[in-house]
Amino acid sequence: MSTPAVLPHVDAVQAALEDAGLTVYLGGAPTASSWSPPELYVVLYPEPGAAVRESLADERTDFTTTFQITCVGGSMERALWAADKARSALSAPLAVAGRTTWRPEDLGGPPVQRDDDTNPPSWFVPVQYRLMSMPA
């Protein structure tokens, strides 16, 4: 058996969010001066995860990771709407080739915050999830 890889899991999360009609950026929003933010978007911050033992035989084929999506909107309501849309998109097991995934576990996050460093100001709310998979 091969060691599980993180990128197919990241791709599955991004695909689920995009299939829900959300604009997704990986690791941060663009910073070019010519970039104009959409009314709302989400930023996906993955971590590398960990291959974990499936049994006492120490075969590390199971996988667990956490990731954060930061939902950004032009108003508090838009940021919360993006969080609801993302939550709905991540409510079913994700499709990762050769793997069986559990439904992502919603770990919650802090309250919505206003970002006055953007012009115009925006609102954002980070939400964390745990994702686990095993060989299919």
Task: Describe what you observe in this structure.
The mean pLDDT is 92. Helices cover 20% and strands 36% of the residues. It has helices spanning 7-19, 76-89, and strands at residues 24-26, 40-46, 50-52, 62-73, 99-101, 105-108, 113-115, 122-135. It is of the alpha+beta class. The protein has 2 helices and 8 strands, in the order αββββαββββ. It starts with 6 loop residues before the first helix and ends with a strand. Strands 1, 2, 3, 4, 5, 6, 7 and 8 form an 8-stranded mixed sheet that branches. The protein has one domain (7-135): STM4215-like (2-Layer Sandwich), CATH 3.30.2000.30.
CATH overall fold name: STM4215-like
- SSE string, helix = H, strand = E? HEEEEHEEEE
Instruction: Based on the coordinates given, report the CATH architecture.
Output: 2-Layer Sandwich
How many distinct folded domains? 1
Oligomer classification: single chain
Largest sheet: 8 strands, mixed
Ends apart, CA distance between termini:
11 Å
Give start-end ranges of low-pLDDT stretches. none
Which range does the strand content fall in? 35-45%
Task: Please count the beta strands (DSSP E, at least 2 residues each).
Answer: 8
Number of helices: 2
Mean pLDDT: 92
Gross morphology is elongated
Any idea of the CATH class? Alpha Beta
Structural class comes to alpha+beta
Helix content: 10-25%
CA-atom Rg in angstroms: 16 Å
What are the defining features of this structure?
136 residues; STM4215-like; elongated
SSE inventory with pairings:
Blueprint (H helix, E strand, L loop, with lengths): L6 H13 L4 E3 L13 E7 L3 E3 L9 E12 L2 H14 L9 E3 L3 E4 L4 E3 L6 E14 L1
Parallel strand pairs: 1-2
Antiparallel strand pairs: 2-4, 3-4, 4-8, 5-8, 6-8, 7-8
